[in-house]
Amino acid sequence: MMTQDFKGDFFEIMRMIVEADSMAFARAADGEANVLKNNTIGNKDGWLYRKDKNLIFRADLRKSMQCTDPGFIYGISCTCCDVANHNYLLELLKTDRSHMTFSNMWVNANYPLFKEHFFKTLKAANKDIVICTNKKAKISDLAAYFPVKDFIPIPGNCVTYWEKNRDYIRALLDLHGSTRENTIFLFAAGPLSEILIHELWLVNPRHIMLDIGSSIDPILFNRKSRVYHDDRSEFSQRVCIW
Predict the structure, then answer these.
(1) Structurally, how many domains does the chain consist of?
(2) Residue 83's domain spans which residues?
């Protein structure tokens, strides 16, 4: 159960990774909110949503935000970082408040906690791990932190990739979700992560599904892609407020 306490919810998710056999954590912030508002939006990772052009992606993202099942947790923008999108996303969600927490779960003042606890939590869970992220990621470099059983690559712009290949991607998720048991799926695919987590949940909710965002970019891409990766930044000290 989420209590909207920045550090408390972090440790609750760590507990669920080890002890639960069914849990999803999907995160929506300014990027996802702007897609849902049908605003042209993109970021440094190379994805781009075009107003009135990528409406299939928008519709599927909106549907992914409507789950009310127990164990399906949504992280949204906080009031200290983005109050406007906090209010927008809060109104969009249909689930109970006990299934809501921070989209910034892995970042800001929680990032040192993430580095200290996340990898050893994955090992303690003793479950197979599948990661879905950009095809350019150096998956082999993760071996020093946790074992990866399989890799689902996402090439190019995740928005157009989904719209052009969604039947195939759904079939691939069906294969993984229906043939694996009690697996941890890690997603780092921009706003597509939320769609993929929901699609996989519909196939088989008896897995652990986590949107990890940019949290392991320094490992996957050998670069600090966000300000919070720098321990000297102001964000590294920010304890987010619901």
Answers:
(1) 1
(2) 6-237
